[in-house]
């Protein structure tokens, strides 16, 4: 019995698997489909086991190949994302250095726009989530008080902080920043 290579080209695998699927639709018999696709003429039990074993190895090799390809594509996507970010930064630098030049072309135009104001705090804030339960559910499901904690939180009102900063009030723990980004219009 011939041993299949560890990885089989994706095109060949797709053709073989497609042929097997078509034959399974016609006859519903995996052994018969494998015999026709892989050209095996024996229907002995040993050969049927070998065919199924080879088919199993074949599919596993395709899964490994697909995983490798997915990892490769993810890496390629990450590289291209990095290239795109560097390209945007370069365009932004050029546009900021030459604000009087209209950046228009046959494909569209590029503009430099201010991003919305961002709130920068002098301390680290976090958003915590709790499993909350209503008084109604406590009563409905007869939840014992020993299973319920009453939590009191202090939350920073970021909207009020932003309003006060925009109104000109100085706060020692916060400031507003604004950056610019490149926008492509077609």
Q: Outline of this structure?
A:
The protein has 186 residues and is mainly alpha-helical. Helices cover 51% and strands 11% of the residues.
Mind explaining what this structure looks like?
The protein is mostly helical. It folds into 2 domains: 10-83, no CATH class; 109-185, no CATH class. Helix content is 51%, strand content 11%. It is built from 5 helices and 4 strands, in the order H-H-H-E-E-H-H-E-E. A two-stranded antiparallel ribbon has the order 1-4. The protein has a two-stranded antiparallel sheet with strand order 2-3.
Key features?
11% strand, 186 residues, 5 helices, mainly alpha, two-stranded antiparallel sheet, flat, two-stranded antiparallel ribbon
Structural class: mainly alpha
Main sheet overview: 2 strands, antiparallel
**What order do the helices and strands follow?**
HHHEEHHEE
Helix share, percent: 40-55%
Average of pLDDT: 80
Structural domain count: 2
Report the strand count: 4
Using only C-alpha atoms, the radius of gyration works out to 32 Å
Number of helical elements: 5
- Please state roughly what percent of the residues sit in beta strands, choosing from under 5%, 5-15%, 15-25%, 25-35%, 35-45% or over 45%: 5-15%
**Regions with pLDDT < 50 over 5+ consecutive residues?**
none
The 3D shape can be described as flat
- Strand arrangement across the biggest beta sheet: 1-4
Q: Could you give the distance between the termini?
A: 60 Å
